[in-house]
Amino acid sequence: MCVDTKLPQMASHIWITVILSIVAVQVSCQSQGNIRLVDNGYEGLVLDIDDTIPEQHCNQILNGIKNVLSEFSKQLFNATGRRVSIRDVTIVLPRSWQTTNSQTCAIWGPLTTSAIPTPANIHVSTPHPVFHTRPWVQQSQGCGQPGDYIQLGADLLRASTNDSHLKTAQLLLAEWAKFRWGIFEEQGYEGDVVYPATFRHPSTSEIKPNSCKPAGSKAPFCKTEDHIPEAPNKHNTLCQGKSAWDVIMNSADFKNNRNSPSNNTEALVPNIKFVQAGAPNIILLVEDTAVMNLQRRWLFIRKAVRRVVAYDIPDGAYVGVVVFNSVARSTASLSKMDQVTDVRQRIGSSMPRNPSHIPEKHKCLLCGLQEALRTLDSGSTSSEGATIILITTGSGATPKEEMDEMIHLATERRLHIEVILYPATDMTSNHGLEKLITATHGSVLTVMDEGVGNDSKVTMMVSLMDALLSTIWRLNTPSKDKPSRVVHSQAYQGSLVSKAKGSFIIDDSFAPDAKFSIYYYDLNHVGNTIQLTTPSGKVMSSINMQEEDGDANVIFMNIPMAERGKWHYTVENRADSHQGLVIQVTSHESSSKQITIRSWTSQINNSSKSPVIIYAEIKNGMLPILNARVVAKLQRLGTGLSGNKYAPVYVDLYDSGNGDPDITEGDGVYTRYLPYLAHSTEEVVDYELTITAHDNNGKATTPINNILTRNPRIYHTQEKTCCGSSIQYEHVMSLNSFQRSEVHGVIGIISYADKLDTTPPSRILDLKSLFNLSSYELTLRWTAPGDDYDWGRVHHYEAVLANSWKDALAFEGEVVSGMPVPEPVGSEQITTTLVELYGQIIYINVRAFDEAGNHGGESNIVSVWVPRPPTTAPPPTSPLPLMPSSSLKQGYDQEVTQPIRIAGFNFEDMAVIVGSVAGFLFVVAIIATFCFLHVARRQRQEKNKDKKESSRHAIIKASSTIVIDKDESQDSADSAVKNVEALSKEDYPPSSNPSWSPSHLLQEHERRFSVNSLVSRDLGEISESMTPYENLQEPYPDVTLTGTHSYPSSQASSTPHSDPPAYQPSYAADTFTAYPYNYDHEYSNEELPPYSSQAPLRSRMASQSSQLSAYQRPLIEAQSGQIPTSYPNMLARPRITSMASQCSTPYGNEVFIAPSDLAQPQEIHILPNGMPKYTSDLPGYIHQPSQMYANVATDGNTSTPPLPNKTKVPPPVAPKPMMGNRVPVEGNIEPTRRNITQV
């Protein structure tokens, strides 16, 4: 076939691609190769039943198949105008079904046991996650191209009523039209942006369902007179508006008046034959000529055959060996493989030790095929469907007479021929086996020539083994009988001393056991170190696990119950520089989880310039794998001028659903156009195509099939039809890490230079439109195609707005301006334009152009209903969003009013502007508030600092205790500061007592709570300051002078000062225990600071008490112990707190501080009930209320109302130790005065 393309940035070229071989049973265009239409009847239709279907349903399913196929043949005959019906069908039964039991599985026709090499056209399987039991077709190619297969659920066939069989036959007929003739669904899908469920009818502009229903016909597809080309469904898009009937009549079955209407009035009754898969029959047909004697090629053949026969061919298979040159002979008769006898060793060693010297040009391939058939006939099983593995150099063309005879023999016996080109050189392109391979649904695998001097590299031997393993794996055998798969294969070049290090992954899709193998050219190339590390990090010693097979040049280790995850290995590599080691890991597929790759190419037509498309289907059992990374590798055969292999070409495949080339997203089929491959010759160049798939760094998922058992008769009414632009799955699950490879085969490419570039970009088939009813703007979106199909970057785009669908298809209409700059292939393109065609349906078509002016095909034509603008001011309404043009519903009719527009802005624009401004103002307000608070805080701090510098400081606490400790570093942070007027040092000489007795402590306690310590010498000032607070019921603050005095130079103190002795606790600080009592008290007797007695001050204050007010007098009387009972709360003081430093100056000066207006009243309790009696442990200290707290008789003239109880939550304090843990303080140690901590 011819395909045009060009070289990037240089002269253009035309390249011709010829498919020389296609993978056996995995080629889409050959999936129907077994179906033949002869005299208006289809023959060769194959239907298989999945191995997972229970045998107990055998009779129900077989009866259902019989009834459905009979009805299907009648409906097909009527739908095609008496042109075709079904003549015969072959049903392939599962191997596990026992057909001898008539009660569970009774068949009514002959049963043939054979290995079926061709794929089934209809699969009877378990329910699909989306379509359930409803029949559906996987379609991977374009309009007029056949589908891949039909699948339906087994439960649908178990129904026992004729109505159910009739409905199933109707559904099957609809899918048959897609499968056989390449039409698509003529309906839309809810939520599909490309193929919507509704559209506007072109004649009435009314919203109608996007579907085609033939009038007065039982056919599931529309005839020409019923067809609506404007409907945006999948069929109209891919077939450019042609009716389904036109596509059918243009197919190979009916083109040029083939199979005209039959004279028969009744349809054919299908003749059903039963086939049960039997044990495979395999013949190894090996070329034995002089060319095999070069560079140890024959030695490698013998080792590869032994490896495959001894380890890979499943038990129960029959194997024979035939060699040929000018004549052919059998070296091993057909024998059944088992693990009991020595048959594997005998067959594996049956190859001649030395090749013949007969020239290659004298070989007789026909002789070898005839001898292979005689070997098959000598066996005890049928030779029909046998597999022949042909190992040949491929050099030299086969005479036409011999080729025709081989094709006749192969097709008559339904043989399946796999070809391995060994070694693949530049001359292998002339092997002339294309017709034979195509006729037998075979494939071509290659082994690259890697000869070095008189030897060949060990990698060449391993490649031959892998090719043989691949052909064995493709046999139609149950999963439990499949040979092992290659999990990991890596070649390591030899050197003086090196380590071969690598890793591999064992995932859940493999069986529990695995095999680790090391292939070598010479045994001495493998060192003593072979180490395996499990995914959990355990190092496995391989000394007792190694097995060696010198006949296959392999050392292997079986790993039972291999741990899932990533393994690591280290092997000592002692190979020479021109040799090396090959490390492989193999494992069997799991019976329940099988990740498989199926590859094919588009159909070849040598008279057409259609490009070649690569397809790869990645599935987990019967379910597709989504979001996988799939790469096609194109390896040119032969070597370059330097003697090295050509660099491979890698092509990423995608399941994008953009329509060209990928039809449906989510079906697990990954596609891409074959790229341009430049050559220096105009001859055919062979490439081997290999497909690799992996989990895409954990992104791969697969649908969950959680279908529950339901009544099979109602299945067809509840399930979705296949398929829109994508398949939507309700539930998916992530897959563990995996990697698979599949060798597709060899393709031949002819490339020659030409001055003209005739390769166009691909079609745009995912065009979507959004229309804004507010601004009358049309937004178009699509996926960027390539310059040459889906390769490169287009030059520019063009789009038209047309009044009719036909004008848009002809690309006639108003040209859209402002098209976007082309993006790389696969990117999304977006453009917006203003529409001024009002009151009508407009149609849009977009296509891409390359630099040479070639344009791609027409895109899917989208339609948009444009209402007329309102003539009067509409009432305020909420704005409508962007409207999908092809999925209009009643809410998007032309009567919908437009939103409010202000000064040329619509509501959306105004909302954005207002929101932006409001957000900006909000941020500014936050910043301004923060700055204001920060500045205010700084000002307060500066003000307080100035007050501290200009005044003396006092520690003020409403409820406090003195913490005494010898450790100077243990400062308290809880203190209070208040500016007071300092008293002179003469009135209050400092105390010099180094230690304090308990009686002194009690006296100091009483003094601290007396008035004499809180008043100044000027009683007049006290009287004035106390007047506003006569009714205040808050306790007075405890005042202690700090050591931050500042005296003017004229008042500087001349008398040295020293700190008063601190109260030294008689316990260790590190023995504190939790304080178990409530903190609802003011002071206890032991919480007093050690101050000396102030008797002179008492007498002085007593003499002046007569001059005090009624409120001040009790303060003076309290100092002398004469406090009246009418003033029980006179010592309430305001709680003013601030920070204070540790005292360093005398504490002889104390003043009375007047309470503030904000002071809180607090009742003073004589002694709380929960107060611990720590003071009882002190000698001479009697635990009882002091005189100042004692109740005294009142004179009756004064009365103070009772104060309400007010609960306050104190801050947390350090716990106090038990008395038993207190340690006495030595008398010669100067106690340290600490600052005050609130209790």
From TrEMBL:
Residues 1041-1057 have a biased composition (Polar residues). InterPro entries: CLCA_N, CLCR, VWF_A, vWFA_dom_sf. Residues 1-29 form the signal peptide. Residues 1025-1067, 1194-1239 are annotated as: Disordered. The chain crosses the membrane at residues 910-935. Residues 281-472 form the VWFA domain. Keywords: Membrane, Signal, Transmembrane, Transmembrane helix. Residues 1201-1215 have a biased composition (Pro residues). Pfam families: CLCA (PF08434). This is VWFA domain-containing protein.
